[in-house]
Design brief:
The protein is an alpha+beta fold. It has 5 helices and 20 strands. The chain has 2 domains: 2-192, no CATH class; 199-330, Cyclophilin-like (Cyclophilin, Beta Barrel). 43% of the residues are buried.
């Protein structure tokens, strides 16, 4: 059994896996990682199953001391991670994709952030402020040893359930992790790493209350650029931009909320439902973001720009099938 110590918890670091399912009927949100794509990639780097719990770091990452040897992986947002003051750099291939600047280590070698990393007892991992993206994922070979709550290790912060004592990680916390084992170094293929463009095109299928909106309102939604507002968190992202007009009221009889649902209350600003979203809601839903674009949405930070593009359900299903096949092929590779 290994162990880590949280020297600094950063802005918001928590233990997250794929989330807890089959409990929404009782009012319990799924929660889990905001970016499940990066979660799976991080776990592949260290030989875990795809949805083992990782540390999800938000915008400003944690500082971690390793109290034993470990094998780790870091994916998602670029938080300029360092081990003992030496930067973990992006490989040349990844640099070409992301446009990130690369600098050699003292020994002239490069270490890819999206690669297997071995650390020794006493090493300190320090994560900075996100330069690109919003959330980074730190995986540990053998996983994170915290109790499961309703079949999941994920932290539901509002309910103080799961994860490490049901809360975000704080200075001084000591957490058990799996034991280090022999593992061949792995590097994530560049085509699976998000490129963080200036303008993010988010695809959707139409929502169940689309007919509650004026034609003008639908046109506004389709043809406008929106920004992520400061009123955004793991529960939902409020977007600032042109207001969307309803035919009458935004209120409906409360109905189920799916991940990626875009609600439009009376004020006309769309709100995207994210990992900690409520199970039911009483506002009209104009659209639902497709599954493969939820991780992209999760990596947006305040001020980032997005526009929306409608696609059909069949195309959304095909895109998800292709993405799942890429992950399956990765896990089946040697």
């Amino acid at each position: 059994m290994g162990k880590i110590k949280i020297i600094s918890g950063g802005l918001l670091s928590s233990v997250q896996d794929a989330g807890r399912y089959a409990y929404q009927q009782f009012g319990m949100p799924v929660s889990g990682a905001m970016d499940t794509h990066s979660l799976q990639l991080a776990n592949w780097l260290v030989g875990n199953t795809g949805f083992e719990a990782c540390i999800e770091a938000t915008y400003l990452g944690p500082e971690i001391e390793f109290l034993s040897e470990a094998v780790i992986g870091i994916t998602g947002a670029h938080m300029t991670p360092q081990v003992n003051g030496e930067s973990i750099f992006l490989s040349e291939a990844v640099m070409r994709i992301t446009g990130a600047r690369m600098t050699p280590q003292v020994n002239g070698e490069y270490v890819d952030m999206n690669a297997t990393i071995s650390v020794k007892k006493g090493d300190i991992l320090a994560m900075g402020t996100a330069k690109k993206g919003m959330r980074a994922y730190i995986s540990f070979c053998g996983g994170i040893n915290v109790p499961e709550a309703m079949g999941s290790k994920s932290t539901y912060l509002r309910g103080k359930i799961g994860g490490f004592e049901g809360r975000k990680l704080a200075d001084g916390d000591q957490i058990s992790i799996g034991e280090k084992r022999e593992l061949n170094s792995r590097i994530i293929p560049p085509n699976l790493i998000y490129s963080y463009p200036e303008m993010n095109v988010i695809r959707f299928i139409v929502g169940p209350e689309i007919n509650s909106f004026e034609i003008e309102g639908i046109s506004t939604f389709l043809n406008s650029v929106y920004k992520v507002s400061h009123q955004s968190d793991r529960m939902g992202y409020r977007l600032s931009g042109p207001l969307i007009k309803h035919k009458k009221s935004a209120d409906i009889i409360s109905s189920g909320i799916a991940l990626g649902s875009i609600q439009v209350p009376d004020h006309g600003e769309p709100i995207v439902m994210m990992a900690d979203h409520q199970t039911v809601g009483g506002y009209t839903k104009i659209a639902n973001i497709i599954s493969v674009d939820i991780p992209i949405m999760a990596q947006l930070k305040v001020g980032d720009q997005i526009c929306f593009k409608e696609i059909q359900l069949k195309e959304a299903q095909n895109l998800l099938t292709i993405q799942n096949q890429h992950i399956k092929n990765l896990y089946n590779s040697k």
